[in-house]
Amino acid sequence: MWSDKESKIDFLNFNDIAESIKDLITEKELMPISIGVFGDWGAGKSTILELTAKALEKEEQEYIQIQFDAWTFQGYDDAKAALLETIAAQLVEAAAEDEKLLEKALDFAKRIDKVRFMGLIAEGAATISGMPTFGAIQNFFGWAGDAFDEDEELNFEAVQKDAKAIGQIGKNSKKLVKAKEKFSPPKEIREFRKSYISLLKAFDKPVIVYVDNLDRCLPENTISTLEAIRLFLFMPNTAFVVAADPDMIRLAIPHFHKGATVRHQTDYLDKLIQIPVHVPKPGFAEVRAYLIMLIAQDRSIPIKEFERLRIGLEESLRFSWKQGQISVDDLLERCELDDAELREEFKIAEQMAPILAESANINGNPRIVKRLLNQVKMRKKTAHRRGMQLDERTITKLVIFERCMGVQATNKLYELIDSESGKPELIKELERTDIELDVEWLPAEWKKEVNFLKKWARLKPLFTGVDLTAAAYLSKQNIPMGSVNSVMSGAAQKMFEGLLKQKTRSSNASTELIKITTGEEYISVMDSLIEELRKVEDWSVKTPGIYGARQLAAHDDRCKANFLAFVKKAPKKRWLESLIKELEATK
């Protein structure tokens, strides 16, 4: 089994990207700098951050490297403070051995309390005044100006411990504004920045802050974290490396800035991130290398041979622009690995790579690939416990079908296996190479994926004449249908929830959710919607989920085929028949 955590070992030639980011950071003239590592969910952004940190550790110049996982603080009362306090804590720790440095670090940490307190005031005041909270600290400057006695003692620690203080602060905000001797928030921000600059000058080391998992957070936390980063922008000797799905960030902006246009959303991100670095989509060669390395890791081959294998594949990928990929046999010979069983596993990986790289429902996504392999391992262990004589290749081929074709199409496959004594005639027709496949033979749920089916049918092992009863039973009984949707990204999950709640025939919000979700996840979302619609008992009422499913079906032909196959079996209703005719008329 393989962990779902980011890898500290490069399986996909991401070292090139990490080295490029390192080069930007080590170019002193470019400091301060903000770099965005942009990519879809599961594309490998976290791994690139890990590899960048590892590359900087090898430099002669010492760096203070700070890791911040935004998702860890998802339930935190103030997301801005979470980042600020993480930075402060790391700087205090780095200064622990030097008394003068420690004094400066503690001074900086105390100023974060005040900045955080101002943020709480802004949020509380905005709540009672109806003011939008986008850029809370900046808005506070606009309405409050100065609020406290400069020498007044404030119990910041108590405020930190009790997020409910926000409401109380909001109620007392008018009294605070009327104070005669006033505390200046703009001055505190200046002092905050001055304290930080002084501390870094004393350290004489650049600070690198890695911000990860923003695209897993709720919109409020996403923007709050970015707002905290703005406090540090253009401060000397500081770099921020932010890993995120840019579409998810853009989607979060309207939650704070009502009426924000697409241009405003893009401008916000462009002003925050100076240099975007996009994670490339893995192709056949990258997926092949990834599968081989995962297999080698699972087989626990000796460290020396493992590293030779990794370097051999990395070099092959690096020079793929001018030469072919290194063969499995050459790779094994180079690594001094004489293992027939390992060679067979590598060969299977080589056969699987094209379909995993090209399938619209996988698209080479490393996290999806890894989770699919974990499913195969789980089923293999279950089969062994039950005395089923099933090999991994058979299980793998069926798992790929489930992921790429979706629940409805997979249900149809297992229906055919059950009804034809484990040997469907349709499988035999798919695997024939002497005649052209007659698409009319295919079930409605399969007709939109003819190209995939042809490639899948040629994936070994061939199923012609093979009794698939045990394999189908294992899939249906041991791994509940629909479990593949557990690999949905945060964007796809939000899309599913939005479509399920949709109460009108069309929705601009749903259109936006569909737009920012990658096409390879549409089938998983549609399958989840259909599973929810199966629970509907009273079809005399237009259940909200039906409209979300209809909108997705109108957007994607594969989803339309699955949706129509389902609703045509639903109870006959005039309004439902109208919906079916409408979808069938669209091209």
3D architecture notes:
The protein is mainly alpha-helical. Among the domains are: about 15-120 and about 195-280, P-loop containing nucleotide triphosphate hydrolases (Rossmann fold, 3-Layer(aba) Sandwich); about 395-485, no CATH class; about 490-585, no CATH class. The chain has 28 helices and five strands. It has helices spanning about 15-25, 45-55, 80-95, 100-130, 135-145, 155-160, 165-170, 175, 185-205, 220-230, 245-250, 260-270, 285-300, 305-320, 330-335, 340-360, 365-385, 390-405, 405-420, 425-430, 450-455, 470-480, 490-500, 510-515, 520-535, 545-555, 555-565, 575-585; strands at about 35-40, 65-70, 205-210, 240-245, 275-280. It has a five-stranded parallel sheet, with helices on both faces. Helix 10 links the parallel strand 3 and strand 4 (about 240-245). The longest helix is centred in the N-terminal third of the chain and has 31 residues, at about 100-130. It is globular, with a radius of gyration of 28 Å. The model is unreliable at about 120-180 and about 480-485 (pLDDT under 50).
